[in-house]
Design brief:
By secondary structure, this protein is α+β, with helices and mostly antiparallel strands. The chain has 8 helices and 8 strands.
Length: 233
């Protein structure tokens, strides 16, 4: 989303097509907690959104909470669920999933409650809990969104992780994510395998088209992708 306004709290997005505009408007008009707030629109191609002050979740120096991401994506899919399928973001590359800081008052209130109930010192020892308290996930860019099985979004999301992490970290993140996600939405192994194969082809093709091929193939890519084929739900 490119800001085109003097108001620092506003993003004005000019969509590339009428179809993309309608896809984006359909999602943002539902006022979901994990998407920016819709402020206005002008047909055929302009959408006005509240500015989201966040960074791509894979770029955050403190990492990200895979369980919280699983919960957030499952909530998104469950809310939009209809007749066994849902609306998938489809282009869920890291820049379209942001880690956004929560308001300071909200963090303090939730932190105080956890300290009270669990008798821990958030500042002194439990960094992961503190990090989770401080951030929310926010999904942006639905120009490619479409009705599909949730396995489409989940498998495509994890292909980015397969490029980034060693096998041990990748196995941990995917396990934690799936455990959290499937508390709300079930995943089907047969559909998973079908869409995973399709997404690998799409992922590799888009990397060539947009010249995002690394100088060297990530050494753990093959092993990580194999783990995706072996996943059980």
């Amino acid at each position: 989303m490119n800001p085109q306004s003097n108001d620092h709290n506003v993003f004005i997005k000019k969509c590339v097509s009428r179809t993309a505009f309608e896809r984006e408007l359909h999602i943002y008009s539902k006022t979901l907690e994990m998407t920016p707030r819709l402020l206005g629109f002008t047909r055929p191609d302009v959408i006005v959104l509240e500015k989201v002050d966040g960074i791509p979740y894979l770029d955050h120096p403190d990492g990200f909470d895979a369980a919280m991401l699983g919960k957030t994506l499952a909530s998104f899919h469950k809310t939009l669920w209809k007749n066994g399928i849902t609306i998938c973001q489809y282009d869920n590359q890291p820049k379209n999933i942001l880690l956004v800081s929560k308001p300071e008052d909200e963090v303090k209130e939730q932190g105080a409650e956890i300290i009270k109930n669990r008798n821990i010192n958030l500042i002194g020892g439990e960094t992961s809990v503190w990090h989770k308290l401080q951030h929310n996930f926010c999904f942006i860019d639905f120009s490619d969104a479409r009705l599909d099985h949730p396995e489409n979004d989940v498998s495509h999301l994890m292909l980015f992780w397969a490029e980034e992490f060693d096998v041990s970290k990748f196995a941990f993140l995917t396990s934690v994510f799936v455990s959290s996600y499937t508390r709300q939405v079930n995943l089907n192994k047969k559909i998973w395998l079908l869409l995973l194969r399709e997404n690998i082809e799409r992922f590799d093709r888009r990397r060539k088209i947009y010249n995002k091929i690394p100088d060297r193939v990530p050494k753990n890519r093959s092993e990580n992708r194999e783990l995706l084929f072996e996943m059980e739900f």
